[in-house]
Amino acid sequence: MLTVGSSAEPLLSGASSTPVIMARHVRKRFGSLEVLKDVSLEAHNHEVVSLLGSSGSGKSTFLRCLNFLEIPASGSIAIDGEEIELRTRSDGSTALANRRQVRHIRSLLGMVFQSFNLWSHMTVLDNVMTVPVHVLGKSRADAKSSAEYYLHKVGLFEKRNSYPAFLSGGEQQRTAIARALAVEPKAILFDEPTSALDPELVGEVLKVINDLAAEGRTMIVVTHEMAFARDISSKVVFLHAGIVEEQGTPSEIFDNARSTRLRSFLSRMHR
To answer: What is the DSSP letter of 70?
Structure first.
């Protein structure tokens, strides 16, 4: 039987002794391809952890393992003290043992995807309200009040009755951020939030994420925006071929990289 490890309630200071997110020796395989070979990572209260790496290094898969959109083959993950049991099938693969617990874990983590993942038949307001109402059991009145607050925060209150098809890519991604915030998460996971945007729209999304960091939100951000990662991060983690090749402060990673692979990656990104 596999279990997701437990942790105590995080402190409210900047870098508490107990992480909000703690992953230990996470592995994940798709058929014969081992995407994650051994990934360990921590995000403490109020920290922003940027996750860097080339395409195929396992960044997005790791993020999806944190909220169990993908089931780790082995290792342990702790989210705000919550333990999730995984059962081992007869073929040796792992599966969720208690879906109610997993739904609760997902309510602690906001997730922002590359491709927005908005419901096209719903207005902006309804997109932001849906999970609080139908998953968290909030009243529509409370969910509406909260959704409007977060739409104000991301600069989209005036678009609340619009449909996604009538929004720019940047507006759609800001709607997705408001939707993630509406569940009042302990931490937010960003999976390359600007990769699907036209260059002129990237800045508006990065500004929103930067504002959230300034508020002290705990976040893990997969990004190819190197200057942004340097400015926003408490810690930077570089993945290569499914393992953590190097991690450290922004200064350590960008100014004093030890790994040849990391130096090569940074050189390519700055061309």
So the answer is: S
Q: Over the stretch 161-214, which tens digit does the pLDDT of each residue have?
A: 999 999 999 999 999 999 999 999 999 999 999 999 999 999 999 999 999 999
Beta bridge partners of 110: 188
Is 0.85 surpassed by the pTM of this model? yes
| Direct distance between the N- and C-terminal alpha carbons of the chain, in angstroms, rounded to an integer | 47
- Ordered DSSP codes for 216-228: T--EEEE-S-HHH
Phi, psi of 242 (to 5 degrees): 85, 10
Q: Which of 81, 64, 78, 82 is nearest to 28 (CA)?
A: 64
Query: Roughly what angle, to the nearest 10 degrees, separates helices 169-181 and 140-153?
Result: 130
Phi, psi angle pair for 220, to nearest 5°? -120, 125
101, pLDDT greater than 90: no
Q: How many CB atoms lie within 10 A of CB 189?
A: 26
Residues β-bridged to residue 199: none
3-state secondary structure of 181: helix
Count of CB atoms within 10 A of residue 134's CB? 10
Contact present, 224 and 269 (Cβ < 8 Å)? yes
Cross-strand partners of 26: 39
Query: On the CB side of 36, how many CA atoms lie within 13 Å of its CA?
Result: 25
Structural domains for the chain: 2-108+185-269 (3.40.50.300), 118-184 (no CATH)
